Amino acid sequence: MVEATIEMSSPHGLQGRRADRLTKTASQFECNILLSSNDYTANAKNVKEVMHLSSRAGLRLRIQASGVDESVALRVICALLTD
């Protein structure tokens, strides 16, 4: 398992198109990817769970990936969320 903690840079957080783009990107990987904020953990491949995070700019997210392509997945997801 690999993990990273990032700070959201988008003022709109993980709503709408951004959440959809994240889940579609995460679904391309075989590994499990989890996003955690405060006391809530979401499957990065489930758009409803991701949108429930209500992430906003400045919020810290913990990203965990475990499985075959975990390192690549973590790098891509981190880049997507901090772009």
Automatic annotation (TrEMBL):
<dbReference type="InterPro" id="IPR035895">
    <property type="entry name" value="HPr-like_sf"/>
</dbReference>
<dbReference type="InterPro" id="IPR000032">
    <property type="entry name" value="HPr-like"/>
</dbReference>
<comment type="similarity">
    <text>Belongs to the HPr family.</text>
</comment>
<keyword id="KW-0963">Cytoplasm</keyword>
<dbReference type="Pfam" id="PF00381">
    <property type="entry name" value="PTS-HPr"/>
</dbReference>
<protein>
    <submittedName>
        <fullName>HPr family phosphocarrier protein</fullName>
    </submittedName>
</protein>
<feature type="domain" description="HPr">
    <location>
        <begin position="1"/>
        <end position="83"/>
    </location>
</feature>
<keyword id="KW-0598">Phosphotransferase system</keyword>
<dbReference type="InterPro" id="IPR050399">
    <property type="entry name" value="HPr"/>
</dbReference>
